[in-house]
Amino acid sequence: MSDLPNLVWLRAFEAAARLQSFTAAAEELGLTQAAVSHQVRSLEKSFGITLFIRRARHLELTQLGHAYYPSVAQALTDIAYSTRGLLGHAQTRTVTLRAPVSTAVLWLAPRLGAFHSAHPHIRIRLISAVWADSTQDEDVEIDLRLGPSGWFDRRAHLLATESVIPVAQPQLAEQLKSVDQLFGQTLIHIHGYQDHWLRLSEQTGVPLKDRSAPLYVDTSLAAIEMAASGAGVAMLMRRYAELPLSLGRLAPVAGAEIPMGQGHYLMPAAGEAPNSAEVAMVRDWVVSLFC
User: Fold this and answer.
1) Which of 95, 136, 166, 275 is least surrounded by Cβ atoms within 10 Å, i.e. has the fewest?
2) What backbone phi and psi angles, to 5 degrees, belong to 231?
3) Domains (range + CATH), the chain
4) Angle in degrees, CA 44, 289, 56, rounded to 5
5) CA 244 from centre of chain
6) pLDDT (tens digit, 9 = 90+) per residue, 104-135?
7) In the 8-state DSSP scheme, what is residue 184?
């Protein structure tokens, strides 16, 4: 069956064709619009044909797309019915996903509910890199890491480069109109990222002040709680700051932002066995979160 297309791509094609929208298909599948569009383009590229006419507000199947859709829809329906008949609705597949602790808590966990609603047969075992030593690499099917490019080999897939911003309790942030005023506050340093304040100073040309002793924490999660309590100002990855910013617990300070010099990378699988359809779905979901 060497000519069998990728089933994940077929599922995206079927949903997009049925709903006539990448956006609606993405909502149904628990992915982003960009991920669904990418999967459909991958299917088209593998065939060397165009399946959709992409209009401004909707999709239209091409003649080849119209010819292909009924058989794909029927095949996926047959697979679903056959699986239910053989194994029942209770069948689940566990996929182990490892990620940095702050990425797991602040970026992945808030989005897991939507994925589970769309894919109730897939159970994600999300483990934090803090406990990485308790899990062998061969037991991790999807490994998400954060660091500079020099830490990883060329097989690692860059998902996104990151930036950092200063944040503070909203009332305090409102009072700080400039980086100079910001540097007059108690600065919260995160272990491993102590250079962020110095780099902000160098980028803006504003010297650091020696007004008060800085605070040191070992995770972004702790920095968020300290900043939200009014203890000082923290430099956070913008991605990590999104949730507390949206909840009104923190606010950006002085519109400052600098490159982090690091990115999130998807590591190559440790095992040699081919990925299952469930692992591929979770992997595509993770990629879509960083598009």
Assistant:
1) 136
2) -75, -20
3) 7-89 (1.10.10.10), 92-156+267-291 (3.40.190.10), 162-259 (3.40.190.10)
4) 50
5) 17
6) 999 999 999 999 888 888 889 999 866 444 55
7) T
Output the six-digit token pair for 90. 């209770």
DSSP for 221-287 reads HHHHHHHHTTS-EEEEEHHHHHHHHHTTS-EE-TT--EEEEEEEEEPPPSS-SPPPHHHHHHHHHHH
- pTM of the entire predicted model: 0.66
Q: 36: which 2 tokens?
A: 């669904």
Give the pLDDT confidence score for residue 273 in this predicted structure. 44
Give the C-alpha distances (Å, rounded to integers) separating 69 from 17, 60, 61, 72, 177: 7, 12, 9, 5, 57
> Given its phi and psi angles, is residue 98 left (phi above 0), alpha (psi -120 to 50 degrees) or beta?
beta
CA–CA separation, 95 vs 30, rounded Å?
16
| CA 154 to centroid of chain Cα atoms | 20
